[in-house]
Amino acid sequence: MFPRPARRFPTAAALLALAAALTTGAWAGSGTTERHRPAPVTHVPSAAGSSTPLSGYAVQSTAKVGDSAAAVSSPGYPARGWYPAGPHSTVLAALLANGVYADPFHSTNQQQIPKADFEVPWWYRSDFTVADTAGRTYLDFSGVVSAADVYVNGHRVAEAARVAGAYTRHELDITALVRSGTNTVAFRVQPNDPNKKLTMGWLDWLQPPPDRNMGLVRDVLVRRSGPVALRDAHVVTELAVPSLAAADLTVKALARNDTDAPVTAEVGGSVGGVRFTRTVPLAAHETKSVTFSPAGTPGLHLTGPEVWWPAGMGGQPLYELALTATVAGRASDTAHETFGIRDVRAPLNSGGARQYRINGRELLIKGGGWSPDEFLRWDRGYAEDRLRYAVDLGLNTVRLEGHLEPDEFFDLADRVGVLVLPGWECCDKWEGDVNPSGSGERWTDADHSVAKASMAAEAARLRDHPSVLSFLIGSDAAPNATIEKDYLEALRAADWPVPVVPAASDASSPQLGASGMKMTGPYDWVPPGYWYAKREGGATGFNSETSAGPSIPTIDTLRRMMTPAELDTLWKSPDAKQYHRSPSTTFGTLRIYNKALAGRYGAPTGLTDYVRKAQLAQYESVRAQFEAYGRGATDTSGPATGVIHWMFNSGWTSLHWQLTDRYLDQNGAYFGAKKANEPLHVQYSYDDRSVVVVNNRHSRAEHLTARATLFDPDGTQRYDRTVAGLTVPGDGAHGRALTLPSAVSGPARTHLLRLVLTDADGKEVSRNVYWLSTSPDTLDWNGTTWYYTPTTRYADLKGLASMAPAQVSATAATTSSDGTSTTTVTLRRTGSGTTPALMTDVHLVDGKDRPVLPVRWSDNEVSLWPGESVTLTAQYRTADLHGSAPGVRVSGWNTAERTVPAA
């Protein structure tokens, strides 16, 4: 559930600040400058094995600093007029936090930020103190975008040619420069160009930030140790599959003597309650690998291990490794790693599609493309909220195409139970040698070195996380032989434990062979029936990125991100360029989407009408995408093995590619996905009119009853059939309940289909409502492009416009405990008439009618027939009410909006 213990949010003021930050997109600023607040000083303990992140920086453009690098990087330098920045921050993120620019997420404000300011290097300067210099001191960091000269106490310790690439990891021994008291570290960060540097870019996701994310986007650690340092500690796990009855653990680390004299170290530790130790003699500056395995330490053979599972399949237990190197009876260094025990395999099936198995069980990958904040601002709470949304939606995976998040992200994924599919990004420098349609420059010898070092660093960082499912060493294109060889050597050296995939597209590499994935689109609007075809992006194989494109947010979000004039263009001007869609000429407008919306539902009459039609369209399209793949997972021919909705979220205020918006509001796309991915689910098939039950639980479902009823929009019943005694095996299997007739009586061209699934006790376990047409959408398959398949005739759903208003009563009450509130809402279709209330939406709001977010609804966007009622629950953090009483705003396709108290 989303609410977290109160200790995560210690004060009401902190909660209000976070809420305001998420609302404005500024995150750390109030609109006033903080330039005169000095950067914090980091106090580094003397204890061997300590690892302390620098707590912040002062930043300034080199165009405004005339002093020498030696002066800037020396203690006591005044840094007047510099901007304070957080512990990991891009240049623009720091300026936004200091109120230099208006909210870049609103309107076209971001266009007003001058790009020229970021075409020169910027200084990052931080002070840290040490009490003594008896031990050794190191700087340990990655996440430099794009490169940096590094200085300590007036001396350059690394040049930009060495510190290049967003993912390379660097350890600099600064022992000889560190002095007791205050010390200074400074980075002169070079401008970024993702087409020329192996860093990060955005392609067509959003309007790219003017600074192109230059800065330090991960922690810079100050590490202390004695004569012997421990590095590269990790645990290799081997789980007995399919029994899961035993697991072998192999602990590995490097012991490094950083002195000019030989030493003898005792390296020992514990994992899972098992202790071990070894004497390690080391010559001057020698490094040795230290390994503890079940052969020498029988306790590392575990019987009955606690096995890690994705959410919904089991628990997420984690183990802790603790290592210590001791020299002459004193601790010299320590290492700590958290890991999980699980087994991941991904062979190609008989049709050449990649089929994942976790702990011996086949798994349909259901996921979304993950986007960080556009300015790479890390907020642990915000990331956790989004990961918990993924679980709420019934997804099991998020894909990271580049933009590999900080360590905390993977820690959260481990604990929440969301699988992660990381990999390198497409189309820019990362694919400069292999993607002729991309924009990246070809690689130099130096780039090959940076790429291999990047792979080695990320492999070492991610290998112990049980949430990590694979690594995609290519995206739109697979690496060539030279690049693949470097990547695979780095992965093998790191004891990489899970499958390596050559590309997210249908491509091959010399050693790995075929990817077993496809990247056939679509990326723009297609009708729901599209997903059932076993071709292009339809439900066969593993589709690594796909969706029906635009995802219009709720009207609350739209009014926060756009001006009234811009909102008019959404529904009045299909061919108008939409800044909040994409910089791409392909995806720059809403032409395809708006044409389909008008063609199927009727031309919008205003903004409100446009948004409500968009929610219906997005609900049915996203639902169909996941339902088609869910039904196809156990097909004997061309089974569906994976689908990644492109995308899960957006890094800014967007009009496309999102299941949840920037502010964590939930629209039709969100609830369509949530409905499709229910644990036990009844659904309609657009291809053959069958009604099937999909069982995503592990155990068999028995004694089920499915009922299908067809209505005219006015509520006139045209067909009704009930089938009892259904049994459906588990693990994604499906069973056919019935097939709808090809035609029913009556003049209506639009119908509503209500599906209800009940268990042996008559309890409703799944309910699903569709709007269908007697003239279905017709696709021009021969006209398919890389991003969509045209529709030559639209389904006639205009009959929905004739639905009479439907009355829905709503009562609500709220209980609160330990910082968490639960609001219970009962909706009932009241009043006269036979017309159902279609797509009734419930929004939780505070005293100012602002959405309370994040929130987890048991269900939403529900449809009710006369006399029917439903009880929904919403869980959220009490502090997100901002001290006011909750309210419930109820609206729907044919239900008037009103707000009722929910205290």
TrEMBL record:
Signal peptide region: 1-28
Keywords recorded for this protein, A-Z: Glycosidase, Hydrolase, Signal
GO molecular function: hydrolase activity, hydrolyzing O-glycosyl compounds
GO biological process: carbohydrate metabolic process
Entry protein name: Exo-beta-D-glucosaminidase
Pfam families reported for this sequence: Glyco_hydro_2 (PF00703), Glyco_hydro_2_N2 (PF22666), Ig_GlcNase (PF18368)
Domain Exo-beta-D-glucosaminidase Ig-fold: 786-895
Region (Disordered): 29-53
Gene3D superfamilies according to UniProt: Galactose-binding domain-like, Glycosidases, Immunoglobulins
Organism: Streptomyces actinomycinicus
InterPro entries: Beta-gal/glucu_dom_sf, Beta-mannosidase-like_N2, EBDG/EBM, Galactose-bd-like_sf, GH, Ig-like_fold, Ig-like_GH2, Ig_GlcNase
Domain Beta-mannosidase-like galactose-binding: 79-191
Organism taxonomic ancestry: Bacteria, Bacillati, Actinomycetota, Actinomycetes, Kitasatosporales
Record-stated family: Belongs to the glycosyl hydrolase 2 family.
Residue ranges annotated for the Glycoside hydrolase family 2 immunoglobulin-like beta-sandwich domain, each copy included: 229-342
